[in-house]
Amino acid sequence: MTYDVSNVYNMLQPAFKERIRLNEPLSRHSTFGVGGPADIWLTVDNRNDLINLVEFCAEQFVPLLVVGNGTNLLYTGAGVRGIVARIALTEYTIEDDGDGTGLLVAGAGVSWPKLLNELAPQGWGGLEFGPGIPGTLGGGVISNAGAHNSDLSQVLEWIEILDARGTNRVAKEGGDDIVLPMPRRYMHDELDLGYRQSRFRKDRRILFEGERIVQPPRGMIEPGEIIMQLGIRLHRDDPQKLRATIDAHKLHRKQTQPVQASAGSVFKNPPGDYSGRLIEQVGLRGYRHGKAQISERHANFIVNLGGATADDVLTLVREAHRRVLEQFGVDLELEVELRGEWEG
């Protein structure tokens, strides 16, 4: 599938103006601080623009990757072909039900830490377990983000997505028909939420085969189901109590997690154990490759010491997975998501 980058840029620029760029370094949009260029980078800050963009890509057969704040992504050094679009749907409202609860209706691009700072003074609780979760609410659904024995599944009631799976099916089968994306709502019980798990990650596990990393098949529009909005149940609580809880969680994060650039936990914890403990036990705490390092503070974090490359980070991912598998027989599962083409 081929497309003219300059032509696509010229077609989209009138709508996105200063929000669209050519050959944008993805290292600027990932907390790892690594990654090559995106052919086209743009920011989507309203629902209509998102729907129009997905329809445009469906009609023009242009690859589209939709992302959040890049707090859980590792971009390849080769970059990403096509369009990379950051979701910046940041509006939210609270519907007070008058019974001590309220429904937060929030765009997928709402920043979790920023939201907490605004909710706590108003006396709205429910999300205060997550001040150390740096990403967006939409990104939090993908992995059912959580901390301090709580997670999003405990307060999430529904989400609204833009379903582009029909478009991907036609593109994969080589058809000429256009299947336009459709909004769809999923209720809580339809989301298959578990430990770092949702319906959106079920078929996206990265597999390790020796030195190779095997990614699941990607669609022309990725992900095929794009989260646009969330409904979250809040409850009334004392503002000072909420502030104290948030501050305590922030302090715990500061004391236990590295300060250098990272994308959070690299691997999920296996049942009954901790990935950080296993990686430390195989002697990799503080281990370096290039300018990347398995953190000395927490072995389930890989940090950028300054000037690391995507391959530096991935080399450490492979090494940690290999050693833990050989010594303990535990097949660690990646929590960080890979984006772009990782040859071999």
What can you see in these coordinates?
The chain has 344 residues and is α+β, with helices and mostly antiparallel strands. The protein has 8 helices and 20 strands. It has helices spanning 5-16, 47-60, 112-119, 137-142, 165-173, 239-256, 275-281, 310-328, and strands at 20-25, 37-44, 64-67, 73-75, 80-87, 92-96, 101-107, 124-125, 146-147, 150-151, 156-163, 182-187, 207-209, 212-214, 221-222, 225-236, 288-289, 292-294, 302-304, 337-339. Strand 13 and strand 14 (212-214) form a beta hairpin. The protein is globular and about 55 Å long.
Note the run of SSEs as H and E.
HEEHEEEEEHEHEEEHEEEEEHHEEEHE
Rg on CA atoms, Å: 20 Å
Based on Cα principal axes, name the global outline: globular
Work out the strand percent: 25-35%
Helix content: 25-40%
Distance between the termini: 21 Å
Unreliable parts: none
> How many distinct helices?
8
| Protein structure class | alpha+beta
The number of E-state strands comes to 20
On the 0 to 100 scale, the average pLDDT is 91
- Largest sheet, strands/sense/barrel: 6 strands, antiparallel
Write a brief structural summary.
It contains eight helices and 20 strands. By secondary structure, it is of the alpha+beta class. A hairpin with a 7-residue loop joins β18 (292-294) and β19 (302-304).
Give short descriptive properties of this protein.
344 residues; alpha+beta; six-stranded antiparallel beta sheet; five-stranded mixed beta sheet; 8 helices
Question: Can you lay out the helices and strands and say which pair or pack?
Answer:
Layout (H helix, E strand, L loop, with lengths): L4 H12 L3 E6 L11 E8 L2 H14 L3 E4 L5 E3 L4 E8 L4 E5 L4 E7 L4 H8 L4 E2 L11 H6 L3 E2 L2 E2 L4 E8 L1 H9 L8 E6 L19 E3 L2 E3 L6 E2 L2 E12 L2 H18 L18 H7 L6 E2 L2 E3 L7 E3 L5 H19 L8 E3 L5
Parallel strand pairs: 2-5, 3-5, 3-15, 4-20
Antiparallel strand pairs: 1-2, 6-7, 7-16, 8-16, 9-10, 11-12, 11-16, 13-14, 17-18, 18-19
